[in-house]
Amino acid sequence: MPAPIKPQQVHLYMQTKQSGSSQETAAAKAGISTRTAHRIDSGTHRPQRGRPHDWKTREDPLDGLWELELEPMLEREPRLEATTLFETLQENHPGQYDDKIRTVQRRTAKWKAAHGKPKEVMFKIQHHPGEMGQSDFAQLKGFSVTVQGEAFHHILYHYRLSYSGWQYVQVIQGGESFIGLSQGLQNALTACGGVPKIHRTDSLSAAYRNTGGRNPQLTQLYSTLCDHYRMQPTRNNLGVSHENGGIEGSHGYFKRRLCQALYRRGSFDFESVAAYQQFIEQVIAKLNAKCQKKFALELPTLQPLPRYRTPDYEVRSAKVSCNSTIAVRCVLYTVPSRLIGHRLKLHLYHDRIVGFLGTTPVVELARVHVHGSEKKRRARSIDYKHVAESLRRKPNAFLYCQWQSELLPNLQWHQLWESLKASFERDQAARLITEALYIAATQDQESQVADYLQTQLDQSTLTLSGLKQAFEFQLSTEQYPDVPSQQHNLSDYDQFLTLGSGQPIPVADDNPQTAPVKTFPRRVAEHRASSNSGELVLRPVSIGFSSRRSQPPRTESDLPRAVRSATSLRKILDQF
């Protein structure tokens, strides 16, 4: 069988022939025979040119079983997958075609492309500036973030403008609640600087009453929120997440970017939630920088922000029990003991609770969320600072309190309590720990007090008096500045008494030597200091229970000053 002609040889032969060489010379130069040169000149050197490739180059690996067994199955039920067809082939012919799964998969895909049912088409949507903003919640999967070494349960609120792609992400503690939606959306609109005409979400239970049907009712809170910002609320159909693809697709891209940024940072742990939020904002800033030009075009088309925000909290009320606690959403919180007996109005945010007495905020608590299996029991949020004063007065109550473990601030204090119980009697240990907690609460020296206790325990020199003396609160002199004061002469007060008697008040003169000397009545101070009691006057006193109205009125103005009562003097002084 002659060797096939290469395209380079044909090209060289044609080029040499066109330059004026003979057929024999051109064939020799191209390395082909004269007979092949004749076929090239006649155009018969490629007899299969233009013919469809309908012949096989190797034997059928399935030995015709595709046409006999598998293809009829697909014709009866096009929803069958390649894996199912391959398992059927193995069952009918065990051990013969175990390595032919790729062949079955290729032929199944080819058959469905030629004879299968039509697939769903994703239409490219045209977005207009300022028209739509989209919101959704996202969860981090594949990696976990910690705050001060402890697992941080949270979700992310994600907002995106459909036209420009400008984004905002906020950390939300708890689930997909209206509080998280309201706070995240309002913060996003404020950061954006404008409001779109349409707000689109999926079927969030915080926004819709998903009772079935194509037109579910809006919740009252979400309806009020959209009305306040003049947005039209819309949502995608149930179970059709790609209708909200403008935000769904951004979830995955943002989470990959966040994960890469955390890898680059070298740690998934943060000092606080605020530090974690700041880190997310840095990642979002880099993404928003890529769409800055389109955002600059969209910003003027957005509606202006309203003057005020709508409330992004839930209002509850609770009465402070005699235990100095309140119960909120199956979680027990301690509050300052001065609030015992009062009913507080509570504003529930996703991360905190603010308590009001009337319109005055009196307490702010970190909100506790129960996750996973912990939902089967009630949770507690105990702060020793709220009850430190009572614990100091009732040290033995610490021994039997149900919150004993929660009253100790951290692991270091738990270890100190165990050491105190081992080194002292239980009552004395309770007095020491409660006094230490009181000092830590009132002086805000939690770590310093713990270090002092540990040092004294190691040296076996810990005493209650020594603990009090070590942290005795010394007031600096700067807290009490010297205020100049002047001690007035008692004679100056006689002018007030003289004014009460109706006599004119003397006017001081700049030249006291030439001032006329006026005679004043006897001063009270001189009368009280005098040892001369004067003439003793006996006055008749009526005995009985007669009404005072029947007694003749007294005319004190006719009496001398020496016999006036103290009551009359007070009446005169009250006039001034």
Secondary structure elements and pairings:
Elements: H1 7-18, H2 23-30, H3 34-42, H4 65-76, H5 82-92, H6 101-115, E1 132-138, E2 146-147, E3 150-151, E4 155-161, E5 167-172, H7 178-192, E6 198-201, E7 208-209, E8 217-218, H8 220-228, E9 232-235, H9 245-265, E10 269-270, H10 273-290, H11 292-298, E11 314-319, E12 325-328, E13 331-334, E14 343-348, E15 352-357, E16 360-366, E17 379-381, H12 384-393, H13 395-400, H14 404-407, H15 411-423, H16 426-443, H17 446-459, H18 464-470, H19 494-500, H20 524-529, H21 566-574
Structural class designation: alpha/beta
CATH hierarchy class name of the largest domain = Alpha Beta
How many alpha or pi helices? 21
Q: What percentage of the residues does DSSP assign to strands (E)?
A: 5-15%
Helical residues, percent: 40-55%
Q: Give Rg in angstroms.
A: 47 Å
Q: How many domains make up the 3D coordinates?
A: 5
CATH architecture of the largest domain: 2-Layer Sandwich
What is the CATH superfamily classification of the largest domain?
Ribonuclease H-like superfamily/Ribonuclease H
- Note the main sheet: 5 strands, mixed
Extract low-pLDDT stretches.
474-478, 522-534, 541-551, 555-563
Q: Which fold does the CATH topology of the largest domain refer to?
A: Nucleotidyltransferase, domain 5
User: How many strands appear in the DSSP assignment?
Assistant: 17
